[in-house]
Amino acid sequence: MRLLAQALAELLDEPVVAGAEGKVVLANRAAASLLGCEAESLIGRAMHEVMQFECAFGEGEVDLHCSLVLPGGRRLWGRRREIDWGERGRAVRFTPDPAAVGEPTDADGVVNFHGLITRDPALRHTFTVIRNVAQSDATVLVRGESGTGKELVARAIHEESNRRDQPFLAINCAALTPSLLDSELFGHVRGAFTGAIKDHAGLFQRADGGTLFLDEVAELPLELQAKLLRVLQERSFIPVGGSRGVTVDVRIVAATHRSLREAVRGGSFREDLMYRLRVVPLFLPPLRERRQDVSLLLWHFIGQHNAVGVRRVECIAPEAMRALLDHPWPGNVRELKNVVEYAFAVGRGAELRLDELPPEFREAAVPSASPLAARGAGDEAERIRSALREAGGRVDEAARLLGVSRATFWRKRKRAGV
Prior knowledge:
Structural class: alpha/beta
CATH superfamily of the largest domain: P-loop containing nucleotide triphosphate hydrolases
Number of domains: 4
Strand order of the largest sheet: 2-1-6-5-4-3
Low-confidence stretches: 55-64, 98-107, 364-369
Helix content: 25-40%
Radius of gyration: 27 Å
CATH topology of the largest domain: Rossmann fold
Number of strands: 17
Mean pLDDT: 78
Number of helices: 17
CATH class of the largest domain: Alpha Beta
Distance between the termini: 33 Å
Strand content: 15-25%
Shape: elongated
């Protein structure tokens, strides 16, 4: 039987067969050549040591997006397939294919648009909208969670417009008191209040001819909303303590992490101003809805640190990569960037390990976020059906509820016949 299995293995590409205990029981010449060793030397070794996969995205038994760590830390992109060999164990077949994922560059579907990096089709469509709307002076409202890149979108609109050679200024409307925000936006004249010893040009005046980005615009005090509405309608305003209007030509890009319609219903935001601001609404998806971008952005930020720091990361430990891929990323791209910076600060060596990630990555499993993940083994098929019902049929959400990756969810679903 062993000779028959070995003969079958030789007919396949790069297969390594593991037994029930997870140790290699068969390996053919193609696998040995790929891994740079003798086939016999692989026998008896743990499968996760022989073939270290850094990431995995796909459906069923096929991971269409994965990378294999080769001797010396070099990564080879390709496709992985797990084949059930019954009592003999399982075979892992890896087919090198750089186009399967693509290195984190501007090729193979990866777009770097003014610092916004993605291969997500929805976000790439947003880039097309940005290019088009930038050719007009229409006011844009960017909606997205913290850390999704709202200011990068505002800068992209500015850089794609004919205002690119004029100022781009930004302010967080939630960061200042109403009086300071009034002065900072619209300026003040000498003697307007105690301490106003000279005239001060506000952001609107300093951004004349260019673009002004109003972040967290939903937090703008009601008393300033009327003044902002006047600027949008008449392109003029009166500085604090002033008596004469100032005319400006400023393109407004606003951003918020919460719905302006809800703010209007709650009485904290003017409806007429909402319509003025959201002439062109843009929605930025959170990173948890762009799972294919996690590894892409991860290696992008690693590359930035490799280029300037004393440490150079060449590979990621499998358990660290799995923790990174399973993380919900509530802080989105900003959080991912900070996690990489943390790892470079506390760790050393060519491999990024799990113990070099922030504490929350090393705590007990993520599944505790959902009662479905804490019910124990039980009937796996029923747990999968319950997760799908609760997630409204969305596979990504169902996998999150069960505390597993999308690829693992597909494998469990197929095994359970759901």
